[in-house]
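Following the same procedure, backbone shapes were mapped to integers, as reproduced here:
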Amino acid sequence: MEFTASQIAGILEGEIEGNPEIAVHKLSKIEEGEAGSLTFLANPKYTPYVYSTEASIIIVNKDFTPEQSLSTTLIKVEDAYKSFSKLLAYYDQVKSAKTGVEDPVHVAESAEYGKDCYLGAFCYVGNNVRMGDNVKIYPNAYIGDNVVIGDNTIVFAGAKIYSETQIGRDCVIHSGAIIGADGFGFAPDDDGVYSKIPQTGNVIIEDHVDIGAGTTIDRATLGSTILRRGVKLDNQIQIAHNVEIGEHTVIAAQTGVAGSTKIGKHCMIGGQVGIVGHILIGDRVKIQAQSGIGRNVKDDEVLQGSPALNYGDFNKSYVHFKNLPRLVSRVESLEKQNGK
């Protein structure tokens, strides 16, 4: 796709200094700009690159005044960073504006989908599926029986949505995600042989949820595994059966949440965190990366370590931990002095 400076300025309500007809077809960092690329200047420390970059167009703040001659076209806006982000969102929207049904696909006769949908080649849409308007199902995705998907949701290539799953509006499911697989439920008999416990529940994903590549969300044993509105999950996260995650909570990669744990609203959970099952985590909780959570957590706690401690207590304890070799040496020296 190619855009002129005039078109970009129109989208951003910006002012052009330079050639309004110059065109760009890609984005770049300002220090790596090439002819035909668009970049931006928001951090003053990158200002020297304005004069050396080969980018064709640079988005800058309105108060920017060049101190040297420029070979590039400027688009001046109120906030260069926000405008560039807006442009990225617009570009993403244009790029994903596919519609129609490619060949081959399998769509069950009982399935329904709204207007302006896209069904990519080799995707599978099962019985009684209900999809809203502008839903995008990319190639090789699997949509099981009785799945519901709301307007404007995107399911990228290779994602697997098991039966009975409910997904809201404006969600993004990235490649390789698996939603609705069986929870890890087995019961031993008297001989120690494990038998599977049927997982008869489902997964409910509310509006504006993002699910990263390779993330797995298990269906409930009974009832539902629930991700509330605005939840954002990174790549390669495991959410077990009957977990509930509150609104606008964000979780970084490789975190695992065991069964039936409830996580509150507006929490921030770092990468590689392990959370045991059947506990309650309050609202606005912050958990540092690689922490292990084995107890209930109150609202607004900040935790670190494994097992996790209050963030301040952890840092104080870590100071003592670093001093352990020196303390041991002092104790040994004192014991020698006392003839022990």
In short: The helical segments are 5-12, 49-52, 80-95, 311-322, 324-337. The radius of gyration is 27 Å. The chain has a mean pLDDT of 93. The first strand starts at residue 3 and ends at 4.
